Amino acid sequence: MCGIVGMFNLAERHCIDVGLLKRMLGIICHRGPDEFGIYKDGMIGMGSARLSIIDLSSGQQPICNEDETVWIVFNGEIFNYIELRAGLERQGHRFTTNSDTEVIVHLYEEYGPRCLEHLNGQFAIALWDKRSGELLLARDRVGIRPLFYTMADGALIFGSEIKAILLAPHVEARIDPLSLAQVFTFWAPLTPRTIFRDIFEVPPGHFLQVKAGARPLITRYWSPAFPEDSSPSPSSKRGREEEYYYVERLRELLIDATRLRLRADVPVGAYLSGGLDSSTITALIRNYTTNYLKTFSIAFGDREFDEREYQERMVAFLGTDHRRVECANTDVGQVFPEVIWHTEVPILRTSPAPMYFLSRLVHENDIKVVLTGEGADEFLGGYNIYKEAKVRRFWAKVPDSQLRPLLLRRLYPYVPALSDAGTRYLQAFFRRGLTAVDEIGYSHHLRWQNTARLKRFFSADLKSALTGYDPIAELERGLDGAFTRWSPLAQAQYLEISIFMSEYLLSSQGDRMLAANSVEGRFPFLDHRVIEFCNQIPPYLKLRGLQEKYILKKSMEGLLPAEVCSRPKRPYRAPISPGFFPSAASGQAPSAASGQAPSAASGQAPSAASGQAPSTGPRDSDPGPPPYVEDLLSPDQIGDSGYFDPTAVSRLVGKCRQGASLGENDSMALAGILSLELVHHLFVKNFPDRSIPEVGAVKMCVG
Which residue, among 104, 325, 347, 314, has the nearest Cα to 207 in the 3D structure? Predict the structure, then answer.
């Protein structure tokens, strides 16, 4: 984990402002507080804020090749750097450090941008080739590490976080209405869009090349792909042989991916939620390495969200050195401004807030790196949305059946005592568009359309600006041409991978909450070899009937307790309305009144005086809403920012004040409204600009 920043002269030869680069590093120094470095010449300035993990003594960036014609700043890790280095040395390359960063430089000398295909890692790269006058910006295959850019005043400005870019002259934060429509449909903007106009993100699996006087060229070098849906169901004998092969090979790949991600010159820990995915990674570390292992988990004061019982079982089973942080409902509200300072985007859930506390616990225990289980649900069929689509397709064959829709009850074992009224609601909800099974995005349309109901809170001006715009149509136009030839499960997986995972899970809930506390996350399930193998696994081995992640459970038999392998998936959730209005009920169970199906899943912010997060106020034994909630949701503030209808928001706030049980849709509306108002307050209205100090003790390299 590091942070990178830079500016490249496109049209005019501006003097490279080293003071600005130092401030840009200063505002993202939480990403890499250990060392700072800057390279500059007449065309470009690049900076790095380093979190030292590999080659602590000599791996400081920027790093160059032997003749100082290729320079790099780099955020992330290359896990196969030892093997790559050995091959490069045989080809005559000479190294001056033991870092993974230098390997990229020499690999680029051999292969140019195609060097990215050789990397097993998670990365955001800025590489300057003085010989060709070309800047290369690149991002890892699935978007684990972020990288943003804009063009202003004849320069391309880039950074690991948008806040660094906003420090540059002639760059301002302006909310993009089209991106807002995407957030209030898909939970996140679709790359290359960000929530801010004219500020873009390099998409996962892409690289950007730019020369002075030319427009940037973006090229895709990798995308998740699946086989065509043409294979018949296997015979029982062939099925057993096929299952054995996939079980064994998946375990082998996960073991190797986990071992590679333990490469570090600092201690490495692991998250242990009590679910199958994190338990798998922790068990592989315990059984196939000699690493001393500290594990970390979140517990909730509200039993509706708490999983400590399973965490304790896994800790006892594996014998790890465990630490746990408990998150109360009010903690979510207290930390939310800091969360949004780091996400830099509105969010429809509060789930990132407990993850912020979890990474802080890791940091407090002097651990810089944690392994986690992200990716298993997406690539191995773990989410309810996959099962919902399967039930609906089965039901659609006999749409008048009274028995087939009863299968929906089996999808929510974590919802206690699902009532007859709740069952009727589920059937009514999932009947909509039931027989349109050939529709692109069939698996997700209901969710997208239902989330889009949140736009009823938009102001008249915002609705007018969005007239004629359909974010779902835009998404579908950009889908891979092979999409319709994949199996129904593969189509649903692709949508979940490219939208929910890359744009929300790995960003707002992942990288940003880890980086906020100077912690690096590593994800064995997101090793590209594991991904590409999982994408070839037949659907019946991922989703066996309605049993999710069947193949993973078979692979882990004997390595995990039976009750963990057989346990139905329980989505990770966090309190929403009780976090901001402590008297409010959580109201997350589906009901006829909720208007929403159950969930598919799926440093510090400066004070208000510096123009950033409003004061959260003191805590007491009977807290009301934090003061910033009162301020930002007041009719005057809602009217002043202009995104939402003050009357509609006041009605929602009134329900919260009365302690009403909010349905899922209203809960997401509350999170989305409040987080957008915070984005406006923090970045549009009161961005600190030059009040951010420069970093000191910078390694300067001048070309």
Answer: 104
Read off the tokens for 193.
């869009």
What DSSP designation does 544 have? B
Beta-strand relationship, 44-50 and 63-64: unpaired
Query: How distant, in Å, are the alpha carbons of 54, 73, 513, 573 from that of 1?
Result: 11, 12, 12, 26
Tokens 């349309």 map to which residue? 445
| Bond into 267 cis (ω within 30) | no
DSSP H helices in 346-457: 352-364, 376-380, 384-396, 420-431, 442-451
Tell me the whole-structure pTM to 2 decimals: 0.93
- DSSP lists the bridge partners of residue 75 as 124
| The pair of three-digit structure tokens given for residue 146, joined into one six-digit string | 């972020």
Bond preceding residue 62 cis, omega within 30 of 0: yes
Residue type, 428: A
| 135 contact partners, CB below 8 Å, separation of at least 6 | 8, 44, 126, 127, 128, 129, 156, 209, 210, 211
Cβ count near 328 (within 10 Å): 16
How do residues 569-593 score in pLDDT, each as one tens digit? 888 999 999 999 987 654 443 332 2
Question: Structure tokens of 12?
Answer: 């005019």
Q: Token pair 């800790």 is at which residue? A: 315
Find the helix or strand (DSSP H, E) in which 76 lies.
strand 70-78
Cα–Cα–Cα angle for 529, 532, 537, rounded to 5 degrees: 120
- Name the DSSP letter for residue 161: S
594 near 664, Cβ under 8 Å?
yes
Q: What is the pLDDT of residues 138-191, one digit of tens each?
A: 999 999 999 999 999 999 999 999 999 999 999 999 999 999 999 999 999 999
* Side-chain half-sphere exposure of 248, counting CA atoms within 13 A: 6
Side-chain half-sphere exposure of 155, counting CA atoms within 13 A: 22
Phi, psi at residue 288, to the nearest 5°? -125, 10
